[in-house]
Amino acid sequence: MEQGTAVQAFASMLSALHERAGSPTLMALVRLGLRQQPPVGLTTSSLSDWLAGRSVPSQQRVVQFLIAHLAQQAHQAGCAGAPVGWLGLWEGAVEERRKRRGGRPARPSAGSGPALPVPVRGRYVAELQPQEAFSAWEVHRPVDVPTAVPGSLPLYVRRAHDEVLRAAVGQAADGTSRMVVLVGESSSGKTRACWEAAAGLPAGWRLWHPLDPSPAQALANALQEGIAPRTAIWLNELQRYVGEQAGAGAEQAAAGLRNLLQDSTSGPVLVLATVWPELFSALTTPPVPGGPDPYPQARSLLEGAALHVPGAFDTQALQDARTVGGHDPRLADALAHTADGRITQYMAGAAALLERYRTAPPAARAVISAAMDASRLGGATLVAREFLQDAAEGYLSDDAYDALGKDWLQDALAYTQQPSKGVRGLLSHVRARPAASGPGGFRLADYMDHIGRTERRFTAPPASFWRAVQDHLPEPHLVRALGRAAEARWRDAEAASLYQRALDLGDLKAGQYLAWLWQERQRADDAYRVQEQAALAGDGEVLEELLMPLLEQEQYQQAEQLVREAASCGNPTAQLHLARALMRDGETQEAARWYAEVAQGSDPDILRAYAGDLREQGDLDGARTALQAAGDRRAMGELAAMAGTSASAAEAEQAAREAFAAGEATPLKDLAEQAEADGRSADAARLYRDAITVFERRRRQRAVGVGLIDFEAGPRSLLDYLDPAVLPMPPGETWALRQLVALLDGTQGAPAGDRALAKVAEAQNPWALEQLLRRLRERGQPQEAETLLQSEASRDTPWALWVQAHRAVHDEQVTDDVRRALLERAAAARVGQAVRVLMNRAEQKGLTGEADQWALHAATRGYTTPLWELVKGREQEGRLDAAEQLAWQAPAGQRSWTLRRLAQRRTGEQVMPLLQRAYDEALAWAPGLLAEHLEASDEFAQAEHFARLAADAGDRQALEELAAQRRDDDPDRQWQAILANGLTAEGAAAAPW
Questions:
Q1: Which of 69, 321, 476, 814 could form a disulfide with 808 if both were Cys (CB 3.0 to 4.6 A apart)?
Q2: CATH superfamily of 540-631
Q3: Element (H, E) at 207
């Protein structure tokens, strides 16, 4: 290894960090990696090679885990953590390693194909009829009443979220693409709200619901072909499109939606989506350091898009409902039969369904329970009759099973499908259409799915359920998801079988999970077998992992055999490896044949690597063709780089613009900087302005859906806003705007730079406004700065309103009424800090109810810091009941997180009432924390009870820790057996497998 190379630089950094972390043993790191969820597969030999610079980790998640853990240990030891540029060091090392090995293409990702005519999808909104809402658009059908009703749909009562939703629809109608995600519990009125809002779209708009051949595939296909302008995309149950239920294409669909919303040339479009709080949280929660990040694209897509729908009508909405109820007997009936404001749930038939579920005969209840578990554990919303028949057996007691009649399944399904008060039954039969490719089956009622996720949260399915999944569930990504659910419940034998089934069906990620499972059990041969199967099935990353030790040990014949076999199976990574090896050996004709296979692929990473080979061979035209076929951001950047060295100035600029439109900024930036360096200031200014236009459009699109704006940067005090010299930098800065102002300052003088900043500030760019104010003050023009600030405040520019408000907070000469008015005006302009100050002022004055309302106002808009600060502050003051009461009021998507943090802060007997209530409310983390506290209090039987419940709920850590503590006092060796083999489906110690 040459000293000073990128590989050696990375190894030196990692070795130094390992030493600062106390030099933990390599086996300790391996064990720690296996305890991650999902596990991080490491070996002592790999770790040793990485520390010595003999090789480089191939997966970023492995590097993130190592760096995060070692940095944490180093900080605890009082030493420096990882350097800021560690990611760049690793990327450089990987790139260097790839070049030495002939390139290692990464896992397939989405690319864009050739331009095609954009199909027009959906139906004109103006043509939609109210009665269609129930079938095609999945609005809940209302309960029947004995008297005449005014129409198919009950009269609609608008609530606070409807106003926000209609404003977004108006922005789309005016030409700005928007996405709004209604987040709320089952039957809270999300889908009906979308229906009502869509009706407000102007003539020419279409509403399209992606469904066939599957929701996810329909959306993915359409995004690849293009979406016509003035299309509203209806994504009811968002998890079917970008979540785990969507399968392997989830992230591709999320990325496609992001591009669609940011691309002004294809708009305007409107995306209307609905999702339950827990599923939204799964899509948007950031990963733990070193852990997996399954939804980075979805998280970026959904940032600022959530609109929370309360489960109950508030006082004003109830008053409005009573007024409307006089004209609609369905609404009047709901008002008469509900006392908690849950009007929409009653009207959707929730009460009738629940009563029928509670009184179901044993066979029908078993069928419903199996459907509940398939949905809540794996997202399988449609299950076959054969699945229900085989799975139901384990949900029946011995007596109930012995009492089954000959036609028990037919009778059970008839019971579950019977309508109640005009509402579809507990299960609905979905008939497969001959012209459609989707399967038929039985679908669980939405509200019963909600009930199952609550009432069965601490119940693990029986063995018959896992067997039925193995035998009758054909979708590989759902089988894999249920495998993960089994592993999370320590049913590792079931998990291994399901992972293998999913891999056999073509799910490569399942192979990764299965290999980790075998590695954790130290069964290297089984892990290798799985990795080899995945490599032959097309997993290029796994192929690289298998090849690396073979090449390092100079086992070239075995490596070549593996590559040839994988290439013949269609693995594009292997095809590229084989073509390069043949080319190096002088077998040009055979190499050309395999290169032709590579050229037919669609993986952008493979095609870019192929283009690099063509460039090395001098075939620049072929390289351009390959890069154009790749079509992703990096490929467009490489095309622009090639044009910059060989094409005309006009062609180079066009290529740079195309790369910039695809998200690669470097070529356009380089062109502008070169023009500036050459003294062509007019060309440079033009390029900078073009870039600013794109940046500003994207910034405004992101800002439109943000609930509250946070203008603070880091741990600075609010007083910093008073001093322009240390004012935190608000969002909105771009290299294009910064360099344009500097260019104009140097060539035309400061007023020209001021004018450029003012133009961008008019579009409410806070960085431009702050810079302009600072420049005016620094030039001794405070009056002009103040006039500008007042002018922007009069236009309700959020940042200007916040500056005014926080100045008033710290100015003793300002009256309290004026101070409050300014803060409320800033809060109305969505400034998060203003809401926070209003909350703190109310709390300091003892106005507990008002403080609660401001904190909850922020939380419903995704700004949770004020709520948590208020909860924590009350607890520190000893007001435990007040802290807990507020935590329970948090929005559904944040309540569990807030209460868990509160529980983790408490000790001893203080925490037990909170944990008991959390368990009663079916919060998933409650049993594990109860087990931990009960074990510490020597309540051993109770601790084991709750640890087992936690495992059944998908949190095996508490039971694993308890088993490890008790293994030395284990006369019948049950704990040792559990640690070695996991649990059976019924929860006993599993036999060796």
A1: 814
A2: Tetratricopeptide repeat domain (1.25.40.10)
A3: strand 206-208
Question: How are strands ordered across the β-sheet holding 178-183?
Answer: 123-124, 206-208, 231-235, 269-275, 178-183, 306-308
For tokens 């073979």, what's the residue?
550
Instruction: Write down the domain spans for the chain.
Output: 6-101, 123-286+295-311, 362-472, 475-537, 540-631, 906-993
Torsion from C-alpha of 733, 737, 738, 739, nearest 10 degrees: 150
Given a contact cutoff of 8 angstroms between Cβ atoms, the answer to whether 411 and 365 are in contact is no
DSSP state string for 431-448: PPPTT--S--EEEE-HHH
Query: Could you read off the pLDDT of 752-770 as tens digits, one per residue?
Result: 999 999 999 988 898 899 8
Instruction: Please give the residue that has the higher pLDDT: either 908 or 677.
Output: 677
Contact 221, 118 (CB under 8 A): no
pTM, entire model: 0.76
Task: Give the 3-state DSSP-derived string for 573-629, with helices as H, strands as E and coil as C.
Answer: HHHHHHHHHHHHCCCHHHHHHHHHHHHCCCCHHHHHHHHHHHHHCCCHHHHHHHHHH
Q: Please give the pLDDT value at position 991.
A: 93
Residue 300 neighbours by CB under 8 Å, 6+ apart = 254, 258
In whole angstroms, what is the distance from residue 239 CA to residue 254 CA?
Answer: 11
Alpha-carbon gap, residue 909 to 898, rounded angstroms = 19
pLDDT per residue as tens digits for the range 536-585: 998 888 888 888 888 777 787 888 888 888 888 888 888 888 888 888 88
Supply the pLDDT for residue 109. Answer: 35
* The pLDDT of residue 367 is above 90: yes
Please write the tens of the pLDDT for every residue from 295-333: 888 888 888 788 889 989 988 999 999 998 889 989 998
Helix (H), strand (E) at residue 760: helix 750-761
Query: Could you give the CA distance from residue 551 to residue 546 in angstroms, rounded to a whole number?
Result: 9
Instruction: List the structure tokens of 714.
Output: 């880091």
For 66, residues 6+ apart whose C-beta sits below 8 A from its C-beta are 14, 29, 57, 290
Q: 430: which strand partners?
A: 441
CB 239 within 8 A of CB 279: yes
Topology of domain 475-537 in CATH is 1.25.40
Domains 123-286+295-311 and 540-631 share a fold: no
The token pair at 267 is: 């708009």
Phi, psi of 124 (to 5 degrees): -60, 135
The tens digit of pLDDT for each residue in 140-182 reads: 888 888 888 888 899 999 998 898 899 889 889 888 899 999 9
How many Cβ atoms from other residues are within 10 Å of residue 385's Cβ? 16
User: Which residues have C-beta within 8 Å of that of residue 231, sequence separation ≥ 6?
Assistant: 120, 121, 122, 205, 206, 208, 269, 270
**897-935 burial, b for 16+ CB within 10 Å, e for fewer?**
bbbbebbeebeeeebbebbeebbeebbbbbbbbbbbbbb
Q: In CATH, what number does 123-286+295-311 get?
A: 3.40.50.300
> Are the CB atoms for 966 and 442 separated by under 8 Å?
no
Picking from 788, 808, 639, the residue whose alpha carbon sits closest to that of residue 722 is 808
Q: Are 808 and 780 in contact (CB under 8 A)?
A: no
Pair 494, 394: CB distance under 8 Å = no
Quickly list DSSP for 231-251: EEEEESSTHHHHSGGGGGGHH
Rounded mean pLDDT, 630-644: 88
pLDDT of residue 99: 58
Supply angle C-alpha 880, 881, 882, rounded to 5: 90
Tell me the CA distances in angstroms from 106 to 98, 284, 509, 540, 579, one per residue in order: 11, 25, 14, 7, 17
The b-or-e profile of 667-678 (16+ CB within 10 A means b, else e) is bbbbbbbebbee
Tens digit of each residue's pLDDT (9 = 90 or more) over 9-42: 788 788 878 877 878 877 678 767 766 666 676 7
Q: How many CB atoms lie within 10 A of CB 358?
A: 9
